[in-house]
Amino acid sequence: MKPDIKNRADIEKLVNVFYDKIKTDAEIGYFFTEVARVDWGKHLPIMYNFWENILFSTGNFDGNPMLKHKELNKKSKLNPTHFLHWNTLFNDTVDELFAGERATEIKQRAKNIAAVMMTKALE
Ligand code: HEM
């Protein structure tokens, strides 16, 4: 039986494994490695804070994801298939590592945010 997501260390594990997949992904990896040229040393801690805040209401995220993805879409067009693929990779990563209430919640939250982001970024 897999453990549920309990704390920041679990979030860090999830985010690290997820972005390991993203970096080499044939469909959306280039947004990170070529379009945005992400500095992983900076991006990963931002993502730990983002997800920790979502699951545990820590109040430690003050970024603007909607704007970031809107800017990204201006540089290189994002489409619904990209978002669906992002969600598949995210869900697969969660299911590989965790199971339980928090694991279900984080997948649902990701799905909802992706839906809003898609309308905001692509508008
Ligand atoms: C096809 C889908 C997606 C792509 C290609 C993508 C790509 C990116 C890239 C390249 C960045 C770095 C931007 C930069 O620092 O200049 C970024 C930041 C970020 N992404 Fe995504 N993303 C996608 C979907 C999502 C979804 C669905 C979520 C949330 C559920 C999300 C959450 C974030 C957050 C929180 C940041 C940091 C924002 C900040 O620094 O304020 N992304 N994304």
Automatic annotation (TrEMBL):
Domain of life (superkingdom): Bacteria
Molecular function, one GO term: oxygen binding
Xref: CDD domains: TrHb3_P (cd08916)
SUPFAM superfamilies assigned: Globin-like
Coiled coil: none
Stated name of the protein: Hemoglobin-like protein
Protein source organism: Flavobacterium laiguense
Source species taxonomy: Bacteria, Pseudomonadati, Bacteroidota, Flavobacteriia, Flavobacteriales
